[in-house]
Amino acid sequence: xxxxxxxxxxxxxxxxxxxxxxxxxxxxxxxxxxxxxxxxxxxxxxxxxxxxxxxxxxxxxxxxxxxxxxxxxxxxxxxxxxxxxxxxxxxxxxxxxxxxxxxxxxxxxxxxxxxxxxxxxxxxxxxxxxxxxxxxxxxxxxxxxxxxxxxxxxxxxxxxxxxxxxxxxxxxxxxxxxxxxxxxxxxxxxxxxxxxxxxxxxx
Length: 203
Prior knowledge:
six-stranded mixed sheet; 7 helices; single chain; 35% helix; alpha/beta
């Protein structure tokens, strides 16, 4: 019997201590409690992130601060590497996890170990944590693949993703061992995730 993959979270932090506190609360509330997490502070000018992690007082969560500012792509790369688990989710510090997130990604990656990324559906929320439904969200639902699971592969997968970028990047989890050596390209700010997905699909 294949052993279930280990799950870790890399949590990039630069601003929004209040949001970080809520994000960690949703992480601790996961029904599947077998995970680890690292909050990676990218030289934030905002104080308090270390204290928030300490106040949670959960041995599964640790805090590190970069010696120099790595920027968005650089910090995302560190988020992928730091947990050291089979599966890593880059959990944005201003997002919330649904209680079955760990169960969902562990199950999907366990069933399909050749998948480099798993992208579950997500719900967009506003600054108060309430659901919103923008034009972008309507488009994502319109083009979301049917069925419980759907595989994107190669040229056809990339064409489908380019036709409508229906995934929610903050919900994606990665199997770092299957990613290219060069992960998030530091040249980009807004399309670095799509750039990585394209290279994975075409590999």
